[in-house]
Write a sequence for this structure.
């Protein structure tokens, strides 16, 4: 089969994938049987035209919007699809396999036809329900919003979202989540869309994207007493939509350092940093997002609130603490009424990373700790409080150059130098931090 026989297929999907998505795997086998017996030709081209017309509408929200608004144009398109199928039937000469294909195609056209009134009904219902929670202009079914939220930095496209919702405040998010659940929608939390893991990519058609970019409140730097820590610690609170660079700039204005600095910090947001446990260059000194969090708030799948607070913070890398404790406090949708007494989650610090690694992404579970490194799968992060650090008075950069192709020699060299510096640090009561790249 040629690469592109289905017209208008300018997507990354092959003709085979489109055919199977619309008609099913069994019909693909039927088509190949007909090809093998040379029972295809003009009828096959007409069938591919039907599939192409359906596909181009399925993959283009702008055309969908046009057809939703124009009943006459939509009727003409659907009429043309049925007409082509009738033409194929008239040429079939009672060939059973051809008639099977036609029946499958008719079912696909019927499903395509039914999508439009169902979509209008669901949009109307969603707008009515969501507009009691947030402003109507925060609820976007338009083509531009759906196209711009179909993928993230992966450029991986599966399904277009049903709606994009941009809450004005942190307080709105819990009720929005509950409303989406009641509507039967899948939910994806999205910040800057800079992730490379596909966490913001809709996998199902009826998906609501909750875009947190308008949650952009950033506090002043505040010294506060942390649970289990003797001296006051400089902290900063940021909502999920705050661009990471803003936090770094605010810290620098106060002669402090914000440790979370991924390469995408000019575009990524705090909610994504928490959900992905983002790192960066400074992770060598102070660890990743997890190591630097004091607390964070998130909306759970049932539309309630969960606040996670770290106790006895070691103000450094979490895996270096013998035992790590978190307090989990659950609230009803109003954000203030306790659901139950707080739960204390205790675990050895060593479980957070494999020995020798600055960040271990192989363990998504992290001892059952909610929110962190879960890519939004167990809730929607709305804000976090972070510790800030004093920058070292002096810094030195050591550049190591390795020759040859055998890195099995280079890696032990880096480890040995690091161990040497650590021994020197202990002997001289000074602090060395070393990164090998």
């Amino acid at each position: 089969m040629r690469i592109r026989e289905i017209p208008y297929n300018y997507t990354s999907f092959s003709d085979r994938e489109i055919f199977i998505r619309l008609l099913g795997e069994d019909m693909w086998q039927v088509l190949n049987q007909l090809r093998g017996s040379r029972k295809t030709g003009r009828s096959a081209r007409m069938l591919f035209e039907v599939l192409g017309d359906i596909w181009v509408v399925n993959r283009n929200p702008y055309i969908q919007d046009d057809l939703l608004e124009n009943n006459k144009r939509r009727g003409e398109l659907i009429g043309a699809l049925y007409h082509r199928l009738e033409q194929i039937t008239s040429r079939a000469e009672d060939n059973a396999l051809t008639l099977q294909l036609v029946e499958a195609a008719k079912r696909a056209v019927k499903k395509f036809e039914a999508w439009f009134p169902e979509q209008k009904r669901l949009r109307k219902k969603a707008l009515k329900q969501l507009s009691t929670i947030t402003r109507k202009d925060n609820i976007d079914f338009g083509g531009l919003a759906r196209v711009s939220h179909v993928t993230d930095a992966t450029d991986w496209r599966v399904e277009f979202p049903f709606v994009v919702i941009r809450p004005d405040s942190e307080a709105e998010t819990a009720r929005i989540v509950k409303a989406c659940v009641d509507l039967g929608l899948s939910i994806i939390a999205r910040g800057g869309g800079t992730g490379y893991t596909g966490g913001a990519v809709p996998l199902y058609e009826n998906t609501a994207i909750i875009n947190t970019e308008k949650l952009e409140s950033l506090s002043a730097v505040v010294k506060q007493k942390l649970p289990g820590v003797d001296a006051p610690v400089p902290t900063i609170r940021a909502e999920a939509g705050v661009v990471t660079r803003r936090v770094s700039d605010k810290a620098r204005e106060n002669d402090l350092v914000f440790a979370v600095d991924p390469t995408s910090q000019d575009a990524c947001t705090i909610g994504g940093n928490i959900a992905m446990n983002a790192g960066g260059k400074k992770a060598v000194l102070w660890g990743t997002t997890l190591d630097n969090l004091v607390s964070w708030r998130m909306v759970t799948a049932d539309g309630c609130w969960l606040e996670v607070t770290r106790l006895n913070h070691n103000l450094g890398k979490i895996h270096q603490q013998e035992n790590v404790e978190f307090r989990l406090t659950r609230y009803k949708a109003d954000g203030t009424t306790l659901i139950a007494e707080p739960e204390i989650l205790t675990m050895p610090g060593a479980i957070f990373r494999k020995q020798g690694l600055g960040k271990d992404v192989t363990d998504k579970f992290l001892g059952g700790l909610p929110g962190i490194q879960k890519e939004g799968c167990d809730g929607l992060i709305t804000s976090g409080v972070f510790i800030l650090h004093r920058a070292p008075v002096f810094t030195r950069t050591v550049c190591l150059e390795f020759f040859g192709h055998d890195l099995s020699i280079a890696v032990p060299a880096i480890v040995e130098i690091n161990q040497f510096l650590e021994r020197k640090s202990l002997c001289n009561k000074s602090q060395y931090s070393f990164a090998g790249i």
The radius of gyration is 28 Å. The chain has four domains: 15-128, 130-211, 218-390, 396-436.
